[in-house]
Amino acid sequence: MTFDALPEIAQSTIRQALEAGATDAECTISDGAEFSANVRMGELETLKEAGSRGAGLRVLIGQRMGSSYTSDLTPEGIRMMVRSAIDLAGLTTEDPHAGLPDADELGSIKGDLGLFSDEVAGLETDRKIDAAKRAEAAALSYDPRITNSEGGSFDSNVGGHVFANSRGFTGWYKSSYCSISAVPVAVLNGAMERDYWFTTARDFKGLEEPEYVGRKAAERALRRLGAVKVDTQKVPVIFEPRTARTLLGNLFEAVEGRSIYREASFLAGKLGEKIADSRFTLIDDGTMPRLFGSQPFDDEGVPTRRTPVIERGVLKNYLLNTYTGRKLGMKTTGNASRGITGNAGIGHGNFYLEAGDKSPEEILRGVKNGILVTELIGSGVNTVTGDYSRGAVGMWIRDGELAFPVSEVTIASTLQEMLLGIAEIGNDLEFRGSVSAPTIMIGEMTVAGR
Amino acid sequence: MSFSDSFFAAKFGISRRDLENYLSEALSRGGDYADLYFEYLATSSLSIDESIVKSATQGVSLGVGVRVISGERTGYAYSGDLSPEKIRHAAQVAAMIAAGPSKVEKTPLEEGAKRNLYPVLTAPLETAFKERVELAQRAEKAARAYDSRIFQVQVVYADNLRQVLVATSDGSLSYDRQPLARMSVFALARDKEGPPQQGHAGGGGRYELDWFHKERTPEYFATEAARQAIVQLGAAEAPAGEQIVVLGPGWPGVLLHEAVGHGLEADFNRKGVSAFSGRIGQQVASPLCTVVDDGTIGGRRGSLNVDDEGNETQRNVLIENGILRGYLQDKLSSRILGTAATGSGRRESYEHIPMPRMTNTFMLAGESDPGDIIRSVPRGLYCANFAGGQVDITSGNFVFSASESYLIEDGKLTRPVRNATLIGNGPEAMKYVSMVGNDLKLDEGIGVCGKEGQSVPVGVGIPTVRIDRMTVGGTA
Predict the structure, then answer these.
(1) Most CB within 10 Å of its CB: which of A152, B154, B333, B464?
(2) Range of the domain at A360
(3) Are B397 and B425 in contact (CB under 8 A)?
(4) What's the pLDDT at A342?
(5) Do B389 and A379 count as a contact with CB atoms less than 8 A apart?
(6) Does residue A138 share a domain with residue A26?
C-alpha cells in the first residue's frame, strides 16, 4: 500500500462511520519512515530503520463524541476502528460545543510550503553514518579535555499526513526531516560535564556542517567545566536563545484555549491587557516556508495562519481549535493538533518572539553582576499561577564579561513579573525547530545557591 | 499455558519454527545475538471535564521489533505488519549491522520458569467501558463535594493491556500479558482573591478494576487532589537557599529515581558518562541508606514478570548501607561488561530499542519515628509531594519540584509554601541523609519515566527522610 492509497482509505473510513450511525466524522492517517545512526568513539553503535503508519478516527453522534485508532489499516482493522469509535460515542455526554469546524472554515493554504524533499529518502546509509562520525570526531578532537562522548547521530524521517472529514475536506501533505547532533563529555579534575548541539533541516543540504555541530557542542561542554554554586541573591538573568525558547514553551501553555476556558492559566481573562514589556511581540505562524512549525492545514482541516499572540506587550489572541473557540465564543485560529490517538488538542505553528536590536554581546556588556542561563532542568513552572522555579546551569557575568561557570542553582520568579520585567531582547533570532527566541534578559530573578 | 495457546500463537498463528527462522534470518550476516519482540497493545482512556464525559478513546497497535547485536553494535528494525515477508524483511534490515557469514548455530527455544505477579483474570480494559466511566464520575463528584472553592475538576482514567512475546537467539522464549490501569484527578481551587491553585492525585497498577472499589477508591484520589489544591490557596512563597529538608514517605522517593537511579543504569556506566561510573564499592550515600530496584512486587505499576528482553525481573540492591553495589543491566551492557542480567531491559514499544531502566525504586525503612524526624528540625522544609524531576547523569545534578511543602519551624510544620524546587548532586546529596524513618511507603502508582524519548511506567518509594543540606529554589 503506497501513500497515494491513503486518502481513499481515509474517505472510506468516513463513509463507514456515517453508515454506522455517525452524524459527523474525521479521520487522520500518518505514514512515516525513520532512520537513525549513532556513532560513539568513532564506531557505529546503532542503526535503526523502519516504517510505520496509523489511523485515528473521531466520530460525533449528535453532540456526543467518540474516538479510536489503529495501526492496522487492513479493511478488518478499519472496521474495528469504526466500531470502537461508534461504541464510545454512545457512552460520552452531550456536549453543546462539540463538533467539526464549519464548512467555510475548512481549507488549505495555497502554494508549496517546502516541507518535503525527496532527497532525504534517497540518502545513502554510508553518507548518513559519515555525517554522524564527522560531528563526533570534530567534538573529540576539539580539545584534550573532551575525553569521552555519548556520540554523534544522524536522524531522518520522511512522512505523509492525510486528513479527511464528513464536511467534504480531504487534504494531504508530505514532510521530511533530517538532523545531525553531537554529545561530547568534557572532564576536569575528575568532574564531568556534557552538552550538545544539533542542526535540523528539511533536507541534507540545509544542515549545518557536521564539523560545526561537533565544535559547537565541544565548546559548550568545555565552558561548563569547573562550575560552582553561587550565593543566594537577586540578579539580572540572561536567557540565551536555547533557554529563552523554553520560556515561550511555558507561555504557549498559558495561551492555549483549553487552559483559558478552564481558567487554568495566569493569562485567562487578560485579553487586551498589557502583560509584558512593550518591546515584547510574540507571534504564532504556521505558514512560514520550510520551517518545522508549518503545515498547510491544521489537524481539523482548517488553514494555518499568522496570529499575533502578544503585540508590543499587549495580549491580543489565544491559540484555539474549534472546540475551545466555541467554548470561548471565538473562532478557531487553525491551531488544532492531534496525534493518531485521542482528540484534537492545541498546538503551535512557528511560535516565536520578534527580535530586538541589540546584539547578545551588547546585552552582556550591560550587566555588572548576573547570570547567563545556558541550560534549564526540572519542571518547576506552574502556568496556572505563573510561579517559576527551575534548575539552571550557566555562566556568571561580572562587569559585562563571562567570569566563571555556575551549576546546581535555581532561578525563580513569576512569569507575570518576568514578562513585565524584560530588560533586553537580542537581535539573534534564529528559527531552529518550531519555537524560536532571541536572547532575553530579565531585570531581576532570585538565584538560589549556597 | 503452553506456547501454542499463547496470544501470538493463537491469534496470529506464529509457531516456534517461525520464530527460529526469523532469528536465523536476523543472524544471517554474522551477528552475535538477535531477538524478536512482538507486541499487541490495546488501550482505552476517558476524560471528564466540567462534569461532562468529554472524550473517550480506544485503539490497538501491534508490531514486531527485530534486534541484532554484533560486538558493541546494534541493528534495529520493526514492522507493524506481522506477515512473514514483512518480518523477514525487518530481520534482514537489522542484520545489516553485521558483515560476514552467519556463525551462530540455531539454539532451540525454551520457555523459562513461569510466575505471575499480576494474576488478573479480567483486565480493566476488558470490562464494560461504562463501569470505568462510572468510576471516573464518582471521582469528579467527590472532588467537587470536598470544598466549595473547588471550581474545576478533571478526571482522566486510562488503561491498557499489552501482550508481548520475546524470542532470543540464545534460546529463550517468553510471553506475558501485562494489564495496567490508572486514574488521575486534577482539581483547581480559588479563593475570593489570589490566583487559582491546583492539586493532583492519582494511582493504579496491574490490578483488576475491582482495585478501584476495594483498595483505592475514586473518592480517595479525588479528596486528595482537592485537599492539595485547597492547601495551596494559603501557601506562602518558598524560601531560597540551603536548608534542612525532610521528605515525606511515598512519592518523594522520586528523589532516588533522579538522584541515584538513572546514574546507575548500565548503559551510561559502560560508556563512562555517569557521575556514578567506576564507583562500585564506594560510599555514595549515608550509611543509613539502602536503595533497591525491585520489579517483582505483585501488582505494582513498575513490576513485570519478564523484562522486554525476556529476562525475569528481580530485586536488585543498588546501594547497601551507603555503598554502591551494582548497576541496572540490559542484555547489551551485561554482554559487554560480562555481568549477570538484572532484568532491567525495557522499551516503550516494538518501535524502540531496549535500554536499562528502573522498575520500582525505593529506600528501605530505617529506625526513626517520622514524628521525631520533624521534631529534630529547628528550621527547614518538609516536602510531602512532588510534581516531577530531572537529572543530568553526567554532572550528577538533579532537580525536582515540590507540589506540596511546608515550612518547619521549631520542630513543627507551620505554613504551606509553594513553588519550591530542590536541586542537588547525585553522589553528594545522599551523603547528607541523617535520619531514615520506619514508615516506608510506595507511591500510589502514577509514575512515568522518560529516557532518550522512551516512556515506561515505574514506581518509587521512600520512608520519611531527613537531609541535612539541600538547595531550595524559591523566591523568599
Answers:
(1) A152
(2) 227-450
(3) yes
(4) 75
(5) yes
(6) yes
Grid coordinates representing B321 are 548501607
- Given this model, what pLDDT does residue B197 score? 94
CB contact under 8 A, B474 and A377: no
Q: Which three cell numbers stand for residue A400?
A: 559585562
Q: A–B: how many Cβ contacts below 8 A?
A: 253
Q: B302 or B103: which carries more pLDDT confidence?
A: B302
As assigned by CATH, the class of the B3-233 domain is alpha beta
CB contact under 8 A, B188 and A263: yes
Residue in chain A closest to B95 (alpha carbons) equals: A47
> For cell 551588547, what's the residue?
A362
Burial grade of A168 (CB within 10 A; 0-12, 13-18, 19 or more): exposed
- A148 contacts B271? CB cut-off 8 A: yes
Identify whether residues A68 and A122 lie together within a single domain: yes
Pull the grid cell for residue A23. Answer: 452524524
- What does the pLDDT read at residue B100? 79
The set of cell numbers assigned to B316 is 536488585
pLDDT for position B203: 97
CA nearest to B351 within chain A: A50
Q: Phi/psi of residue A367, each to 5°?
A: -105, 125
Record: contact B196-A263, CB cut-off 8 A: yes
| Number of domains chain A is built from | 2
Q: Which of A128-137, A168-177, B382-391 has the lowest mean pLDDT?
A: B382-391
Interchain proximity B129–A91, CB inside 8 Å: yes
Identity of the residue in A52, A91, A232 whose CB atom sits nearest the CB atom of B240: A232
Query: Taking CA atoms, what residue in B is nearest to A185?
Result: B273
CATH number of the domain that residue A94 is part of: 3.30.2290.10
For testing contact with chain A, the best of B36, B48, B58, B418 (most A CBs within 10 A):
B58
Looking at CA atoms only, how far is residue B70 from chain A in angstroms?
10
Q: What is the mean pLDDT of residues B223-239?
A: 94
Nearest CA in chain B to A51: B79
One domain for residues A206 and A267: no
pLDDT at residue B195 is higher than 90: no
Residues A216 and A152 in one domain: yes
Contact A192 B471 (CB under 8 A): no
Please check whether residues A205 and A313 belong to one and the same domain. no
Mark whether A174 and A267 lie in a shared domain: no
Grid cell for residue B277? 561510573
pTM, to two decimals = 0.95
- Reading phi first (left if > 0) and then psi (alpha if -120 to 50, else beta), residue A250 is in alpha
pLDDT tens column, B64-112: 999 999 999 999 999 999 999 999 999 999 999 988 788 767 788 988 8
Chain B residues whose CB is inside 8 A of the A235 CB are: none
Of A222, A253, A285, at which residue does a domain stop? A222
Joined grid coordinates for residue A260? 483559558
Let me know whether A345 and A202 are in one domain. no
**Residues A400 and A407 sit within 8 Å (Cβ to Cβ):** no
Residues of B in contact with A50 (CB under 8 A): 76-79, 90, 93, 351
Q: What is the pLDDT of residues A333-377, one digit of tens each?
A: 999 999 888 778 999 999 999 999 999 999 999 999 999 999 999
Grid coordinates representing B446?
502514577
B451-468 tens-digit pLDDT: 999 999 999 999 999 999
Across the interface, do A408 and B425 touch by the CB < 8 Å criterion? yes
Cα–Cα distance between B188 and B195 in angstroms, integer? 10
Residue A41 exposed, middle or buried by CB count within 10 Å (0-12, 13-18, 19+): middle
Candidates B62, B140, B392, B455, partner chain A, best to mutate (most A CBs within 10 A)? B392
Taking residues A187-194, report their average pLDDT.
91
- From A168, A202, A222, the end of a domain falls on A222
Report which of B359, B363, B442 is spatially closest to residue B178, judged by C-alpha positions. B359
Query: Please, where in chain B does CATH 3.30.2290.10 lie?
Result: 3-233
A425 in the same domain as A367: yes
DSSP A152-167: EEEEEEEEEEEEEETT
